[in-house]
Amino acid sequence: MSGATEAIWKPLKSVIQMESRIELLATTAREQQAKIETLTERVIRLEAQMDMRLLRISAPAAKCLPAK
Question: Which site among 1, 12, 60, 68 is 20 to 30 Å from 29 CA-CA?
Fold first, then answer.
């Protein structure tokens, strides 16, 4: 290649490679975000279950009316 063609091609090639890497990073970020959202939903469900169990444990036993 001539010097001028190489001077143009090298930066262009670099930009194309960077664009490819950016697309890969964007895809990876979307996948990670989906995993985070799924984990957040699971944690919320676990917290709700734990809260319900703690309420059952801490609530006094139901009292019956005295017999007549």
Answer: 12
